Amino acid sequence: MRLLTTVAALRCYLTKRCSENKLTVFDGLVFDEMTSWYRTAVGLVPTMGGLHEGHLNLIARARQENSTVIVSIFVNPLQFGPHEDYQRYPRTLEQDRLLCEQAGVDAIFAPTPEEMGVQQNNIQESKVTQVIPPSAMISGLCGRSRLGHFQGVATIVTKLLNLVQPDRAYFGQKDGQQLAVVKRLVADLNLPVDIVACPTVREPSGLALSSRNQYLTAQEKEQATVLYRGLQKVEAAFKAGLRDSSKLIAIAQQELAKVSTVLVEYIELVDPTTLMYLEKIEEEGMLAIAARLGSTRLIDNTMLRDRQPIIAIDGPAGAGKSTVARQVAAQIGLVYLDTGAMYRAVTWLVLQQGIAIDDDCAIAQLASQCKIELTPSEDLQSPVRVWINDTDVTQAIRTIEVTSQVSAIAAQSAVRQALVKQQQSWGKKGGLVAEGRDIGSHVFPDAEIKIFLTASVSERARRRQQDFKKQGQPEVSLEQLERDIAERDWKDSTRKVSPLQKAPDAIEIQTDGLSVSEVAAQIVDYYHQRLSQW
To answer: By three-state DSSP, how is residue 243 classified?
Structure first.
């Protein structure tokens, strides 16, 4: 692991690292130039040091999804007010360095303020060019008492994203306002990076982990758990059907009032994306709390979603995801969202129009302009009919030609952005069963139930051969199918854009020797178990 303290060293490291990360293709696979694949994705975990288990959770997620993981450690003077704790903020570089090395981090970027081009003073006194988020997003919640804080955050985050140019950057959901601001920043400035939100990590007591927790005495730590208890009370009331903002806030206030040493700064219910105040939860809301205990300022929040559950089923090609998902949706009474058919439809259109598979620009334009529709069908074999630009392609997208190219098309960033946006829009109200290769990890990371279906290569090849026979397709040998499936597994798991992976909170089901009905029954049983716990 490298410790980098200058911009020059960081740039040199990243350039060298990317050139070294060309993967060696395993024996038996031959790739032409167009299908050469590189695991070169870079993940950034921005921190101010004082690392704890919450940070390590972000690092573990980044390690799972990227070839290179950079952790930045920079106590940002621009985000501290004149009377805040900049000088005494925890600075534990040697301990942080050891934790990062143990966690498999490739490099730490730990610049000084001077190296980052900022002076050691707050944003109001700084002469550096500033990035200013929309005033409506930074005037409420923490923004009321921390003037200039989010301008300072946005300015340094933008600099870090420009310097590292990561494919993904990882932020915790505990800082809900910061997360919303960073997402808006990336969207508004068209920065080519995915912002990955990771769940809040808590101590056994429920206290959200924070670098500032070390300011607390043992007694104060115990008292601070009232924030989590207040959130739990709100969650219980919400699950019981309460949707009114004032009543939900009153429940949290009543709980926090039980600990007189906790001085509440605010308890608010806002839209988690826009941060606008909500009078009533229609789809989702974030109840956020800020309070002081002694000299320590604490924040926490919980997400409240009024929607039916989403079941996300991921797994490699040929694991039976689509057939299982159809059965699960039918048995539970949810909508089957055939995301794979959407990518197949785009692939079919690319082939129909004679566009070269490696012509990313033409494909990006095509994907951004095409119109895909999924409509229910009474045909049990094809319960969803697929239309693209008003052409029914339900059967056409299942051919060998489309199957052999869909992985390459799906790996292109512009295609995925266009289709994922539509999928997430459909998922806002929930009530879906969706399957793919990154449904639980990327498309619906907040899905209530996540399943990872898998099977051996030989089993999947046998199933694929049977499918081809049923469809009247030309016969393909098992050896060739095994080769094709192994190649596709490798492509899917090493691509830069949303690689195939098991979500950390997914349960794995090995389907060798199991019928579709038996697999579906396992998922339905798990669904009902989880449903009884909500």
So the answer is: coil
- The answer to whether 174 touches 53, Cβ cutoff 8 Å, is no
- Which residues, 6+ apart, have CB-to-CB distance to 114 below 8 Å? none
Please write the tens of the pLDDT for every residue from 242-274: 999 999 999 999 999 999 999 999 999 999 999
> Does the annotation place 188 within a ligand binding site?
no
Q: Find out whether 55 is annotated in a ligand binding site.
A: yes
Residue 449 in contact with residue 352, Cβ under 8 Å?
A: no
Distance CA(16)–CA(10), nearest Å, equals 10
Q: Are 65 and 113 in contact (CB under 8 A)?
A: no
Q: What is the 3-state secondary structure (H, E, C) of 341-362?
A: HHHHHHHHHHHHCCCCCCCHHH
Annotated binding residue at 320? no
Distance CA 422, CA 433 (A): 15
Euclidean distance between CA atoms 411 and 417, whole angstroms: 10
Residues 116-161 have pLDDT tens digits of: 999 776 677 777 889 999 999 999 999 999 999 999 999 999 999 9
Question: Catalytic annotation on 55?
Answer: yes
Per-residue pLDDT averaged across 328-334, rounded? Answer: 91
Distance between CA atoms of residues 326 and 313, nearest Å: 11
Any binding-site annotation on 212?
Answer: yes
CB 165 within 8 A of CB 186: no
| Nearest CA-CA partner of 305 in 468, 475, 431, 184 | 431
Catalytic residue from among 55, 83, 149, 528: 55
The answer to whether the annotation marks 104 as part of a ligand binding site is: no
Q: Which amino acid is at 469?
A: K
